[in-house]
User: Fold this.
Amino acid sequence: MKILMICAEYAPLAKAGGLGDMVAALAGVLAARGHEVKVVLPLYGDIDRERHALAPCAGLPPFAVRRGGAVRRCRFWRAPAAGGPDVLLLENDDQFGRPGIYGYADVDEFADTLPRLALLAQGALEAAVLLDWAPDVVHVHDAAAALATVDLACWSRAGTPLAATRTLLTIHNLAHQSLHPRWEFTALDLPARLAWHPGEMEFHGGLNLMKAGILMSDLVNTVSPTYAREVIADEETGCGLAGVLRDRGADFSGILNGMDREAWDPATDRCLPATYSAGSPAGKTVCRTALLRELGLQDGGPVLASVGRLARQKGIDLLLPLVDGLVSEGWRLAVLGTGEPALEQALHAAAAAHPGRVAFAARFDEALSHRFYAGADAFVMPSRFEPCGLAQLYALRYGTPPVVRRTGGLADTVTDAAGPGDVGFVFDEATPAALGAALARAIEAWREPGRWSSLVRRGMAADFGWDAPAAAYEDLYRSLEGT
Ligand code: ADP
Assistant:
């Protein structure tokens, strides 16, 4: 099949979280399975063109995108394909030339987000036209790309390569809906009815791109079966769109993300000081010693790591009241993340209060994240909600049992040490007490080396590869044919 993916992130070119990993892995595996896959993302100012060997597309001349009275000159760049998907980066300096994906330091959203996303959608569809390439499916990822489904639903496309194209929206995180004031609507050149109740884009008097995508895509899915159930059953997790999703009925489903088992393999990982595998685990001890040294932590207890965005979603605030107790029980705590200033401050304070016991690296650092997964003993992910979560999968693969809350994709991937086939520790209530009890069980297990190493081995053997998810996406694409 011919599949056009539209997205704001694509690892390793531009990544803010799991979406970038997921789109790159899915596009790669679909290409390897014989599909023709093109991916369009913006050429952000901080993408290193040289390092990624990007070059302006030879076959595609510069072009103009017109919308809402604005004329934007664009050009496509291309990443080396090497048998994988054809990755096209949309260049427009005014809109995309600055650093950042969603905003400065990806905390405050850019004020011109809506025109940026409109340009991404329109530019991506324009690529198909310019290349005279007729995608069977336009697969858009999250609210950032959802406008493409609206454009396709509203534009007359007879006689273009997009005439028969169907659409799939994948929701990676329902909490990020891309909300905008209604006055911005005129810049979109779309039919006015969309912006006024009961229009698809209207949401409490403003505009909501996720809602529009949900209502105007042919099919919608999200990234785990449990999250798919939670967002329609629970208004809070549904973030105001539970009813909208419910109304899509069987058109909405959940497909668990896989993980890229080549990019994330401790046996070959070049970011690590030593490699290892389940059968030959010695290198993990080397990684652990190196991580302790790198972070200035003293040995003497298990190392508990966290890697992730510092946002309420991730529940790191549930860990903060426990830090003193954890340290006196023997834990070492290593946190890598950026995000809400209050959480960053609290983590800096915890590190200052417990030198040699607590370390906080307040930055986005891909290579360091690999050393965290490898060097830690256990991994903590107390998310309030979690559409899928990839970090816990990386932790499992790197022999670092995760301690997680039973929600969304965490519930679908981590089985508790109390049950058979266990790979980690699971708790239910989003409270420090429940998290603390799970961590108490974890340190107890860690103190029994035989029990711990079999837990580690089971986690490392868990198969969260892409074969099954890719087949599920193929089924979704095929179900669109002829509809
Ligand atoms: P989400 O997409 O909600 O952020 P996931 O667990 O699906 O959560 O994916 C997070 C991804 O981002 C993982 O690959 C994780 O290693 C990475 N990541 C998050 N924060 C950082 C950071 N500060 N430095 C490096 N990688 C990070």
